[in-house]
Amino acid sequence: MMSAQETIALFIFGCLLRSWTNADLIQIPTSAVIVTSNGTPWDNWTADKVNQGSLRQDANYCDCCTALARPSWVQLTLNKTYIVEKVLVLGRTDIYYSMQLAQITLSMGLMTESLQDEQFTIKNVTVAEKLLNPPREIQFVRVMGSKNGSEPHMTICEIVIFRQTDCPLGRYSVNCSKQCHCRVGSCDSVTGACWNRICEDGWKGMACNETCGPGMFGLNCTSPCHCLHGASCDHVSGKCPGDQCAPGWTTSNCSVACESGSYGQNCSMDCHCDKCNHIDGSCAMSSQCHDGYRMDNGFCKHRIQIPSSAVIVTSNGTPWDNWTADKVNQGSLRQDANDCKCCTSLARPSWVQLTLNKTYIVEKVLVLGRTDNFVQFAKITVSMGLMTEFLQDENFTIKHDTVAEKWLNPPREIQFVRVMGSGSGYYMTICEIVIYRPADCPLGRYSVNCSKQCHCRVGSCDSVTGACWNGNCEDGWNGMACNETCQSGSYGQNCSMDCHCDKCHHIDGSCAMSSQCHDGYRMDNGFCKPKEDTKQSLTIMWIVTTLGLCLLVVGVTIASLCIRRKKIEAKKKALKTAQQIELQPSNRAQVLPDDTHDDNIVHYEVVPDAITKHEATPMYESLQMADMHLYSGLREAMPMSPAPFDVLGLIAESKTPVRRHFALAEELDNATSFESKYTTAEEEENDNAAETNYADFERLENDSEEGNNYEAVNKEYQFVK
Question: In the CATH scheme, what architecture does the domain 4-163 have?
């Protein structure tokens, strides 16, 4: 028997447990459970009592518990798969059996899985529970009790299984992690199956989570779409990339065939019959073509006349009067020669040729004669072809008195048509020669009967050569007519992309047709992609190369600036040196000894120009400098030389006493010898001035002998005697 304290504690624990287990958890009903067991029950405590839906644990009073002789197991099999979050096992509480839940284990899972024992998350004397995090898909739960010496029976009052709450609309699976696309209502929270098995447009599968396959869309993916070049359409709306439908289909989802009488790209072509194939325009389902069209190999074709401006007429025949050969190409279908004056008449034998300005695919040549004469078409034949081919006479398909026709079936590439008239003594008269070509081919087709395919990136190609008007092919194609696939190993626009395998798809570059990729590449979802180390190597090489180039540019720039700076500094230094040389006095004069004497040198002091007339004596006044000449007191005047500077500097600016400049006289004599630029008139004027100053010079000598003071003069000058 339990004590009062234990009874109260178990009661409180049970209340808390029930309130907790009811929060956000849904119990799987007993009706969804089938109980089986291999154990022998005690009395009437059979295995089915673990699934009565009661949470009572007072066994003696409720008669609601199971007691099975150990070892044994009891299993709850669910009627379908559930996502289970928790399993709760309740023992009896009315008698204290401390070992009733001892040595019991749990196993659960799907029927396809093997049994595996699992331990309970929480287990005490009366309660054991297993928490599943994350929740799992479960079809059965089995509780097993092994042999226990102290407790021979495994007593269980209830096994409760809790499932995950229902997912919100459009979600399912564990923790509602997957999406379903049901047309109406929600899907099964476990499997994702829609209750009416109808998916939203563009989805299929049991859980309606698979998109439609290529070329299909709409409700349960049952509607086909027809996109240009087999491209995939939107799986929901059926809209094709760029709204480009395959020939013969229209509407926004390219699922509706062209209406009767139209066909081709965007149903833009007229098949010229009441009912035709909506893709290629063949009129096999119609008995006849519309007016102006003819049935040709199952197609109603319109003959287009090659204009006269595209034709050059030549002939070897002699015309009658002014009925010249050029009149066969006037564009007129009149045949009343005398009235229209529009016919040609050439003396036989002769021929007239129509040369086209380019190659055309020709399907008919019509020759019209005059209607007022019925013998002009006798003995005429036709030849036609390319300029590189030999002439070969051909008979007309139909020839009457006034009309001759040549049918070309199949049509042929033609550059010229020649009509020849044999015989002699009469004329070949023709009023008009008309050449017809077939209608232009539909988009993406060219050649005879539009039998070949071109793959232009934009627009149509030439109906004869297949050349694209802008020269650009669709991805994966090249050649003049864009009808040659890329060579092995290349793909994409102008076949400029490398797929890095021996053989790949010429459009998208997938390498599914190759067993392996080239070195440095790896197979990834059908494509050869660079290995990571290759990418890194290429990146490093690019970075190193870029940095090297940048350093080279910087180095060259710095070197150029340094060289330029050195040149500038050298020029400045040379200029400064020259200026210093010009400004410094000569050292040669300063090294002369004070006692140097020369009988030919006389030293004089001259009054500067700045001394006024009143300040100077008559002697000084007479010795002032005039006209930039230096007068020595001799008969002959000497012009002042601008060179050398060291001499002139000593002469003009020296403050040294006159007696110390003995040697400068000779240098001044040398300097004056360079002054040949002065005119004869100036020399004569200086001679006159020299005569006047010579007397003054003698008086100056006398004054010096009398002891006059020369220091009153502001500056000293040297004169050569």
Answer: Sandwich (2.60)
Torsion angles phi and psi, residue 202, rounded to 5: 95, 0
Alpha helices in 456-593 (DSSP H): 532-583, 587-590
Nearest to 205 by CA among 217, 196, 214, 193: 193
Cα separation, 78 vs 27, in Å, equals: 12
CA–CA distance, 532 with 496 (Å, rounded to integer): 23
pLDDT in the model for residue 699 = 46
Average of per-residue pLDDT across 531-554 = 79
As assigned by CATH, the class of the 304-437 domain is mainly beta
pTM of the complete model: 0.40
* DSSP-assigned beta bridge partners for residue 84: 136, 163
Closest CA to 156 of 54, 78, 85, 77: 54
Tokens at residue 356, please?
Answer: 């086209």
Residue boundaries of the structural domains of the chain: 4-163, 262-302, 304-437, 587-712
User: In the chain, helix, strand, coil percent, each to 5?
Assistant: 25, 30, 45
Neighbours of 416 (CB within 10 A): 19
Nearest to 276, CA basis, from 258, 296, 254: 258
Cα distance between residue 88 and residue 24, in whole Å? 15
Query: Average pLDDT, stretch 19-39?
Result: 78
Query: Between the ranges 18-22, 55-59, 305-309, where is the mean pLDDT highest?
Result: 305-309
pLDDT band for position 686 (cuts 50, 70, 90): very low
633 Cβ contact partners less than 8 Å away, ≥ 6 residues apart: 604, 690, 693, 694, 696, 697, 698, 700, 719, 721
